[in-house]
User: Which sequence fits this backbone?
């Protein structure tokens, strides 16, 4: 440990300046989530995230048994396209049904949405499926994947600056590399989950599905036999919390409701 006081001050100053520069860069890289107006840290470009998401989607498509032509597969397409149409976004939305008996659904940056056959045990009506797909589309629309990677990168960067004063030299690229590794698989935060529920019911309402169906869906989940939560819920808020949050935003969503023509 260098105890020479004449060097202690400049080193601290360098560290403070580096942190200030990082903070300035972070503050300059903000985005606003659609509908909610929540401020988001966005250090990852949308094109970059979409490219990563599309690559991951290709990998999923080679590994998972995709089902086409069945009534359920057609419903996924129909509901997906109907909701995609009201997003007014540039994403190339693509919807896939995976032939596995697990209650799972996820979306990737760029617009690939995957629904698993096992989900139909809980999403028993078309509006209930719309609640699932609306929620997944909301994750993409609000750029939650990029936000996750940005937060991870900023955390790494902060650690890096602290580390460099200790003689370590992690780079920004390493920070992004680490974030990128986790980008696709890291669970969404609770904030993002609640936000996707809120945006999701707005989207389904705009597409002509009654947003109350979202509550039905989560009630079905709550009554699910067994104590193991469905896979895509494991990092999610509890069903009770979730239903309470959806109820809170139901009136807002109903303002967007357009009966299907
Ligand atoms: Zn989610």
Assistant:
């Amino acid at each position: 440990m260098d105890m020479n006081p004449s060097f202690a001050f400049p080193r601290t100053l360098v560290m403070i300046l580096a942190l200030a520069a990082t903070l300035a860069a972070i503050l300059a890289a903000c985005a606003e989530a659609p509908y909610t107006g929540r401020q988001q840290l966005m250090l990852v470009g949308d094109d970059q995230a979409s490219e990563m998401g599309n690559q991951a989607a290709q990998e999923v498509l080679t590994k998972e048994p995709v089902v086409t032509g069945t009534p359920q597969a057609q419903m996924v397409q129909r509901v997906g396209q109907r909701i995609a149409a009201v997003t007014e976004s540039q994403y190339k939305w693509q919807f896939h049904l995976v032939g596995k008996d697990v209650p799972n659904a996820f979306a990737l940056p760029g617009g690939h949405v995957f629904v698993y056959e096992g989900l139909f045990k809980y999403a028993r009506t078309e509006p209930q499926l719309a609640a699932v797909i609306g929620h997944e589309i909301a994750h993409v629309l609000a750029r939650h994947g990029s936000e996750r990677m940005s937060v991870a990168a900023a955390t790494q960067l902060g650690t890096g600056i602290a580390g460099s004063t200790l003689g370590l030299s992690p780079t920004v690229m390493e920070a992004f590399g680490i974030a990128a590794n986790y980008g696709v698989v890291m669970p969404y935060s609770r904030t993002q989950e609640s936000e996707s529920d809120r945006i999701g019911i707005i989207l389904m309402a705009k597409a002509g599905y009654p947003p109350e169906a979202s509550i039905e869906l989560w009630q079905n989940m709550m009554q699910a036999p067994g104590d193991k939560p469905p896979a895509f819920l494991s990092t999610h808020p509890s069903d009770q919390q979730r239903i309470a949050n959806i109820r809170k935003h139901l009136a807002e969503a109903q303002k967007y409701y357009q009966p299907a023509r």
In short: Confidence is low (pLDDT under 50) at residues 1-6, 165-186. The beta strands are 30-32, 39-41, 66-67, 94-98, 105-108, 112-116.
